[in-house]
Design a protein that fits this description.
Helix content is 29%, strand content 22%. With 339 residues, the chain is α/β, with parallel strands linked by helices. Helix 7 (223-247) packs parallel to helix 8 (265-275). Residues 115-193 form the Beta-ketoacyl-[acyl-carrier-protein] synthase III N-terminal domain.
């Protein structure tokens, strides 16, 4: 029996506040041994979540475009809600319940996906596709909030570090439906559990993240760790994208639009070169938004759609890796246009 087609029907996004220029971090920069590392070349701008803005607030604002284009009922009748927040509003539970309530929906499934990291949108597509195709509903919403830039990386001590100038905040939602409008052609997700402990928090003096005490938490980068992450990311993203290309009989150079996460300019260049995709067909917003973590793929796709960079019939390849390389995923769709 042929499985029904599942489509990524639309995406809608939100960027908080006014753009913050690179000079904001330049004036705070302290002595950092990693300041010259290619991983931390600052974007021209990025956005920061507001002081009292929650991840749920961001998702609600991101969903407004879908509501305007498809109506409130489409959101209210969502069967599957899949969420990912870089910084959950509460550490003991995910934001799915609060997001469902805020958007006026009562879904049969509410799933919070934390392990997807920067590839969370691809993982969300895989879960949504499987659930809808197996008869668990007709509509899914994937909701991603990246809110670490204005919270973790803007702490007075952390913003002196080179790593602080790269992240930006933003949110996105993707509408997935049982239809053949913009069919998901194939998805590849891979877990590399051996790397799961390689992303660590650095706090001076050392303590567990939940313990009270002096010192602010930042990502525990070292030159050795960066070298390993660069090697893994350079390898994993092309590998998962090529696996999808192989199954849908598409040469990577014929990808109409490549959309990836955007940790830095080095990865962006290396990925398109590895896949033989020209710069004009690899969408990024790095200099406008910085590293958007899990929100990067849907925000870049939304910009490409709105700008007319991707048109009906185009094959869009989405690919990303997460954390220090413990997860990677790629998904291809044939875009059918906005209704």
């Amino acid at each position: 029996m042929k499985q029904p087609s599942v489509s990524l029907t639309d995406v809608s996004t939100y960027l908080p506040g006014e753009p913050i220029g690179a000079d904001y971090y330049a004036r705070f920069a302290g002595s950092d041994d990693l300041a010259a590392n290619l991983m931390f070349r600052a974007p021209k701008f990025r956005h920061h979540v507001g002081p009292d803005e929650t991840a749920t607030d961001m998702i609600e604002r991101a969903a407004q475009g879908l509501i305007e284009r498809h109506g409130q009922d489409v959101i209210a009748n969502v069967d599957v809600l899949i969420t990912h927040a870089q910084m959950p509003d509460m550490p003991f539970y995910g934001g799915g319940g609060g997001i469902a309530h805020r958007l006026g929906m009562r879904p049969n499934w509410v799933l919070d996906l934390h392990n997807g990291g920067c590839a969370a949108f691809v993982l969300g597509l895989k879960v949504a596709r499987q659930l809808l195709a197996s008869g668990q509903g007709s509509t899914a919403l994937i909701a991603i909030a990246q809110n670490a830039a204005g919270q973790v990386f803007d702490q007075p001590g952390v913003r002196r570090k080179a790593q602080a100038s790269v992240p930006g905040d933003g949110a996105a939602v993707g509408l997935v439906t049982l239809s053949d409008r913009s069919p998901i052609l194939d998805i590849e997700c891979r877990t590399y559990g051996e790397y799961a402990g390689d992303m660590t928090l650095a706090i001076d003096p050392p303590r567990k993240w939940w313990q009270p005490g002096p010192g602010e938490a930042s990502i525990g980068f070292t030159e050795t760790k960066i070298t390993k992450v660069l090697a893994r990311g350079n390898r994993q993203v092309p590998e998962v994208a090529l696996a999808v290309c192989d199954r849908i009989n598409l040469d990577s150079k014929d990808i109409d639009l490549l959309v990836t996460n955007q940790p830095n300019r080095v990865f962006l260049r290396n990925w398109r070169e590895a896949l033989d995709v020209p710069c004009a067909r690899h969408r990024d917003t790095f200099d406008e938004c910085g590293n958007l973590f899990g929100a990067g793929i849907p925000i870049n796709l939304d910009h490409a759609i709105s700008d007319g960079q991707v048109t009906a019939g185009d094959v869009v390849m989405m690919a990303a890796f997460a954390h220090a390389g413990d997860f990677a995923g790629a998904a291809a769709i044939r875009w059918g246009g906005r209704s």
